[in-house]
Structure formats: structure tokens, C-alpha cells
UniProtKB/TrEMBL annotation:
The gene is Exoc3. This is Exocyst complex component 3. Component of the exocyst complex involved in the docking of exocytic vesicles with fusion sites on the plasma membrane. The exocyst complex is composed of EXOC1, EXOC2, EXOC3, EXOC4, EXOC5, EXOC6, EXOC7 and EXOC8. Interacts with EXOC3L1. Interacts with BIRC6/bruce. Interacts with MYRIP. Interacts with SLC6A9. GO terms for biological process: exocyst localization; exocytosis; protein transport. It is found in: Cell projection, Growth cone; Cytoplasm, Perinuclear region; Golgi apparatus; Midbody. One of its GO terms (molecular function) is SNARE binding. It comes from Notiomystis cincta.
């Protein structure tokens, strides 16, 4: 059994411990000591065991007594439940008999309410009268207080009726009719409130307390609305006319007022006033800014914060403005009106003169305002503007040119600028018009400004082509009758000078209105215009020189004739005539004048050489040759002197031209015919464009070279080297020689 096993284990353990204690002989002396120690240990263990068993027994005893008590309690409860059940069954009948009491209680509460309201009910007509008087006198708060009392009486009566018998509509409508006048009072009061609300921006300056009263009345009504709606959720009853929603109505009234205010600012129509739109927009700007400033500084304080009155008003104004601007955009606007509208919508609206006003910040943030008109509408307006502007510019340019042409046939000289150069008003008129349109476009935005500039320059381009054609026609008309127009030369000079003015104006216009990164897009049209202007100026200059040479023709015809040899003054007259013309040409602007002087110089020399090549004279002898040659040298000197004077200050070296006449004179002057070949070859090497027929003509004028000699010289020359001056501009190639005699000569 387990006990025996335990005993055995205990003995084995004891043996082991004793063996452990008595390892050495000397430990035997301590056996007594060991025995005592073990006896103590054993006694201690036994005492602990006893205590443990004792406490276990106590616990069991307590538990048993508690279980016994619980059993008794359960029996008691069971008995009580049986008693309750019996009582309840008996009392059911009694409860059913109490229904009458319940009805009496309901009736009592209704009667109590009726008694409570009796004094009110009897005094309803009188209170209605008093309330009406208070409204008439504008004592709105007191009037509303009485109205609230009346409504309260009616609503309580109706509620009691509803509770007692919700199906009885007859009694309900009886109460409703009895309180009928009260409904009219409510409407009358509302009318007064809405009048104050409509004029709130004025009222708030004159009588802010009135506005505050109105807001308080609206707030009271809102509170009653909320209470009634809560009761409806619980009972299903709501009095007639509720909820009144006066706060919502107030905001609707404000919205209508704002719309009317903005629509009402258009005083004029286009028929009565060309500036109608500018005025209309300016009045709107002023009104809206004033109204919003009042709303921010005064109105805000009259309303509870949760009305957020300023922001609500700001939105109303923004919406009303957007509607008005869309209406205006849909009208058939003229170009300047489109600009006014867009400038206002895109710039003025958000500027410091309006929504960006410092006094409106931080409540108004212009960056968060929506657009008044959509980008799509803006684009439509801009494209309409551009097409109108295009046709306007074409019309203006045409008209400007027509007006200018009328000046060309005047009998008075054109006006001169501050430096004395002739000009007409055309460039100033054209560029003033461009400037005005660019300034207008710049008010709207950069992009439009660039478009308008491109448009102006495009139109300018085609305009200059017309200008060129008109100048050409002017010249042709004049050639039909050189007496007319009287100031042809002066106006042609003005046309030439205008070209320079146009060039400068185009550059300054681009510099002023074009961003540098756009430069490339216009460079081609700019180059075209410059080219056209150069052609006009060049043709103008050459037509003026034609004038000079038409006058010189009779005198040029006298050169290299017998008369000339005898001592005519043709060259003197030529010089005087040229100088006379150049007094006028002094009114031509620098770059063109310089070209004119060079060209005149060149043409005089060409005509002179042509006169030699015409072989109008053939010298008879050395004496005549000497006389003719010296005359030529003297005349070359006269030309040189003249053109030096004309080119004064231009730093032009035109010496070389007159040298050609002198070089030809040397060939004619030569006395030793054997040196003729040498002299001619020197001439040819300097001026390599001299042709054989020129040399033949020259030798004919000389008058002493045989046909064979001419032949030999010409054939030999072909092999010679040439050393022209690097600056030499071929001059002989322009000169033709009468050909009749050439074949004969060369046979």
C-alpha cells in the first residue's frame, strides 16, 4: 500500500542521511548532538502539519453552515413569488375600472389650459388692435411680443384639441377662424421687416437699432420654428403657418435687393450717350465698393456671427455682377465697348479700386473670387474685337492715305519738321492711331497687346504697298503735265522723308510694345516693310532726279557740238540748275539725301560722257582738239566743285567720277598719234567696262584716226591687262553708242 511505500522511502532517506553524517570516526562522538537536532526538526514539522489540518477543518465547517442558510432563503423567495402572482391576478379587474379617472385627468388638463387661455381668448380682438397700432408706429419688438403671445394661445388650444381628438377638424377650424386676424398681423409685421431689410445698408447708417430689432425678431421666429418642428416629430402636430422660415426669406429679399441695385445703375443707352457703358460700369464699381464697405464696418455688427452676413452679401454681389456682365457681353457691343467691358471684368473688378480695396481685406480675397464671365465668353469678345479692329484699322489707314493725297496737290509747300525736313502728317496720324489701340489693348492684357501690335504691323505692311502705288501714280500724273502739281518736288521729298519716319516709328513701336522674346515672330514682316520703304524712297529719289535731268536735257544736248566748242555756257547752266534743285533737296533726310547727291553726280558724269559718245562733233585739227579737251577738263572741274559743295559734310569721296572726263580729255588732247594706243590702253585698264564701240566713238570725235588705225588699236587692246581702282563702279556699261556707223567703221 501507499503508506508502506512512503515508510520505506522515509527509512531509505534516513539511512542515507545518517550515512552522510557518519562518514568519519570522529563524527561518532557527535551522535547525541545529531539525535537532538533531528528530534527538534521532527517536532517542528509535526506542529506545522497539525496547524494546517486544523485550519482545513474550520473552513469546511463554515461552508456547510452557509449552504444551510442559502437553502432557507430560496424557500422564502419561492413563497413570496407565489403570493405576488396571486395578488396580481386579483388586481387586473381593478385597473380596467380606472379608465374613467384617466379620461377625467385629460379633460381636466384641457379645461385648465382653457381657463388659463380664457383671459387671452376673450382679449384676442383687443390684442390684435393693439398689435396693429404698434406695427403702425414702428414699435416692432413690442408688436412681435404681443403677436407671439397670441400665437402661443392659439397653438396651445389647437394642440389640446389635437390631443383630445385629432380627427375633429371642425373644432380646429373654429379656433383657426377665431384667431384669423392674427395671421394678417403676422404678414403685416413681415412686410415691415422686409422693408427694413431692403434698406438695410441705408438703415444701418441712420438707425442701426431698428435693424438689430428686426434681426432679433427673425431670430425669435427661428427659435419657435425649431421648437414646433421638434414637437411635430414627437406628436405629429404643427400649427398652421409654421415653419415661417423668416431667416431664409430675409436672405432672399437681400439677394433681390442686390440684383435690383446693380441692374438699376444703367442710366443711359448707346443712342443717348456714346459713353453709356463706361458710366454704367463706373456707377456699379462705386456702388458695390460703398455697399461692401458699409456691410463690413457696420452691418456685420447688427447680425449674429452665424449669419456670416458679410460673406453672404459678398457672394450675392458677385453673383449679381456675374449675371449683369454676362448680359452685357451678350449685347451687340462695339469695339471700344468690348474693351471697356473686358478691362472692367478682368482688371478693375479685382483692383484696389474695387474688390482689392485694402479696407475690404482680409475678408475679401481677390484670388479666390470666381471669374465674372467665362474664359470662353472672353475669347469670343476678344475675337470679335480683333475682327472689328481689323476692319477699323483698314478703314482708318485708307482714309489717312486719301487725306494725305489731297495734300500732295496743294499749292503750298508741305510743313517741315523741327530740323527743316519736309514731311506730311501721315506717319504721325498712322502711328498715333496704332499707339491708341495698343494702349487700349494693354489695359486688358499682354497677350491682346501683342496681337494688336501684330495686326497693326500686318496692316502697315499692306498699307505701305498702297502708299508705294500711290507715289508711283503721283509721279505718272505729274509727267503728263509737268506744271502740275505746283509743289510736286516738295511733296515727293515729303514722301521720301516719311519713309524714314515710318522706319523709325516701326522700331520705336516694337521697342515700346513688344516683349523681346516675340521679336522673331515679327522680324520677317519688319524686313518686308523696310524693303518697301526703301523702294518708295529710292523711286522717289530717282523721280526727283528725272525732274532735274528733264530740265537739263536742252543743255546736255548742247554739249560736244560746234556751239559748245565756240563757247556756250551749257555746263554753267547745268551746274546752276542742279544746285537750284539741291536747295530743295536739302530738305531730304540724311540717308536719302546722301544717295541723291551721289546719284546726281554720277548721272551728270554719265550724261556728259554719253554726249561725247554721240559723236556730235569731230575735231578738225590739233588746235580744236586742244581747245575741246581743255574745255572738258575745265568743265570736269566745275562739276567737281559743284558736287563737293553739295556733298559738304557727308564725307563722300566722289573725286573719281570727274577723273573719267579728264582721262577722256587726255586721249583727245594727245598731239602725237603714235602714242594714241598707249593713252587709250591706259584709259581701258582704269575703266575696264569701256567697250570697243566706245573707243571707236572716242577716236571718231578725235577726228584724226584712220579706219585701219582704229581697227588695230581695238584689236590690240583686247589682250591688255586691266588695273581698275577697287572702288570703281562701272559707268560705261550704261552708255550706248549710236550703232549706225559702227559696222561701217569696223569693216
Amino acid at each position: 500500500s501507499t503508506m508502506e511505500e512512503t515508510d520505506r522511502e522515509a527509512v531509505a532517506t534516513a539511512v542515507q542521511r545518517v550515512a552522510g553524517m557518519l562518514q568519519r570516526p570522529d563524527q561518532l562522538d557527535k551522535v547525541e548532538q545529531y539525535r537532538r537536532r533531528e528530534a527538534r526538526k521532527k517536532a517542528s514539522v509535526e506542529a506545522r502539519l497539525k496547524a494546517a489540518i486544523q485550519s482545513q477543518l474550520d473552513g469546511v465547517r463554515t461552508g456547510l453552515s452557509q449552504l444551510h442558510n442559502a437553502l432557507n432563503d430560496v424557500k422564502d423567495i419561492q413563497q413570496s413569488l407565489i403570493d405576488v402572482n396571486k395578488d396580481w391576478r386579483q388586481s387586473i379587474n381593478t385597473i380596467e375600472n380606472l379608465k374613467d379617472v384617466k379620461d377625467a385627468v385629460v379633460q381636466h388638463s384641457q379645461l385648465a389650459a382653457a381657463v388659463e387661455n380664457l383671459k387671452n381668448i376673450f382679449s384676442v380682438p383687443e390684442i390684435v388692435r393693439e398689435t396693429h397700432d404698434l406695427i403702425e408706429r414702428g414699435e416692432l419688438l413690442q408688436a412681435h411680443r404681443k403677436l407671439m403671445d397670441l400665437e402661443c394661445s392659439r397653438d396651445n388650444l389647437m394642440y389640446e384639441q389635437y390631443r383630445m381628438d385629432s380627427k375633429n377638424t371642425h373644432d380646429m377650424s373654429l379656433i383657426h377662424t377665431y384667431f384669423g386676424d392674427m395671421q394678417k398681423l403676422s404678414e403685416e409685421l413681415a412686410k415691415q421687416l422686409w422693408m427694413v431689410v431692403q434698406r438695410s445698408l441705408v438703415t444701418v447708417r441712420r438707425d442701426p437699432t431698428l435693424l438689430v430689432s428686426v434681426v432679433r425678431i427673425i431670430e425669435r421666429e427661428e427659435k419657435i420654428d425649431r421648437r414646433m418642428l421638434d414637437r411635430k416629430k414627437q406628436t405629429g402636430f404643427i400649427p398652421p403657418g409654421r415653419p415661417k422660415k423668416w431667416k431664409e426669406k430675409m436672405f432672399n429679399i437681400l439677394e433681390r435687393t442686390v440684383s435690383t441695385r446693380i441692374e438699376g445703375t444703367q442710366a443711359d443707352t448707346r443712342e443717348s450717350d456714346k459713353m453709356w457703358l463706361v458710366r454704367h460700369l463706373e456707377i456699379i464699381r462705386k456702388y458695390v465698393l460703398d455697399d461692401l464697405l458699409v456691410a463690413k464696418t457696420l452691418l456685420d455688427q447688427c447680425f449674429p456671427p452665424h449669419y456670416d452676413i458679410f460673406n453672404r452679401l459678398l457672394n450675392m454681389y458677385h453673383q449679381a455682377l456675374a449675371t449683369r456682365m454676362q448680359e452685357l457681353a451678350a449685347e451687340d457691343l462695339e469695339a471700344n465697348e468690348i474693351v471697356s467691358l473686358l478691362t472692367w471684368v478682368l482688371n478693375t473688378y479685382t483692383s484696389a479700386e474695387m474688390m482689392g480695396n485694402s479696407e475690404l481685406s482680409p475678408e475679401v480675397d481677390v484670388n479666390s473670387l470666381d471669374d465674372l464671365i467665362s474664359q470662353n465668353v472672353v475669347d469670343q469678345l476678344l475675337s470679335k474685337y480683333m475682327s472689328t479692329l481689323t476692319s477699323n484699322i483698314i478703314g482708318w489707314l485708307r482714309k489717312a492715305l486719301e487725306t494725305d493725297k489731297k495734300d500732295w496737290i496743294k499749292e503750298t509747300e508741305p510743313e517741315a519738321d523741327q530740323d527743316g525736313y519736309y514731311q506730311t502728317t501721315l506717319p504721325a496720324i498712322v502711328f498715333q492711331m496704332f499707339e491708341q489701340n495698343l494702349q487700349v489693348a494693354a489695359q486688358i492684357n499682354e497677350d491682346l497687346k501683342t496681337k494688336v501690335l501684330v495686326l497693326c504691323l500686318q496692316q502697315m505692311n499692306s498699307f505701305l504697298t498702297r502708299y508705294k502705288d500711290e507715289a508711283q501714280l503721283y509721279k505718272e500724273d505729274h509727267l503728263k503735265n509737268r506744271q502740275y502739281p505746283q509743289c510736286y518736288v516738295q511733296y515727293m521729298i515729303a514722301v521720301i522723308n516719311n519713309c524714314q519716319t515710318f522706319k523709325e516709328s516701326i522700331i520705336s513701336l516694337k521697342r515700346k510694345y513688344l516683349k523681346s522674346d516675340m521679336e522673331d515672330t515679327l522680324s520677317i514682316s519688319h524686313a518686308n516693310m523696310d524693303a518697301t520703304l526703301d523702294i518708295i524712297a529710292k523711286e522717289g529719289c530717282s523721280s526727283l532726279l528725272d525732274e532735274v535731268f528733264m530740265d537739263l536735257e536742252p543743255h546736255l544736248n548742247e554739249l560736244m557740238t560746234k556751239k559748245w566748242l565756240m563757247g556756250s555756257n551749257a555746263v554753267g547752266t547745268i551746274c546752276v540748275t542742279v544746285e537750284d534743285y539741291f536747295n530743295d533737296f536739302a530738305k531730304i533726310k540724311k540717308p536719302y539725301k546722301k544717295t541723291m547727291t551721289l546719284e546726281a553726280h554720277r548721272r551728270v558724269v554719265v550724261e556728259y560722257i554719253r554726249a561725247i559718245m554721240l559723236k556730235r562733233i569731230s575735231f578738225k585739227n590739233a588746235e580744236e582738239r586742244k581747245e575741246g579737251a581743255e574745255r572738258m577738263i575745265k568743265e570736269a572741274e566745275q562739276f567737281r566743285f559743284l558736287f563737293k559743295k553739295l556733298a559738304a559734310g557727308s564725307g563722300e569721296d566722289t573725286e573719281g567720277l570727274c577723273d573719267i572726263i579728264e582721262a577722256i580729255a587726255e586721249v583727245i588732247k594727245l598731239t602725237d598719234p603714235s602714242l594714241l594706243y598707249l593713252e587709250v590702253s591706259t584709259l581701258v585698264s582704269k575703266y575696264p567696262d569701256i567697250r570697243d564701240d566706245h573707243i571707236a566713238a572716242l577716236l571718231t570725235v578725235r577726228g584724226d584716226a584712220s579706219r585701219d588705225m582704229k581697227q588695230t588699236i581695238i584689236e590690240t587692246l583686247d589682250q591688255g591687262p586691266s588695273q581698275p581702282n577697287p572702288n570703281y563702279v562701272p559707268i560705261f556699261k550704261e552708255i550706248t553708242v549710236p550703232t549706225l556707223t559702227v559696222p561701217k567703221l569696223l569693216k
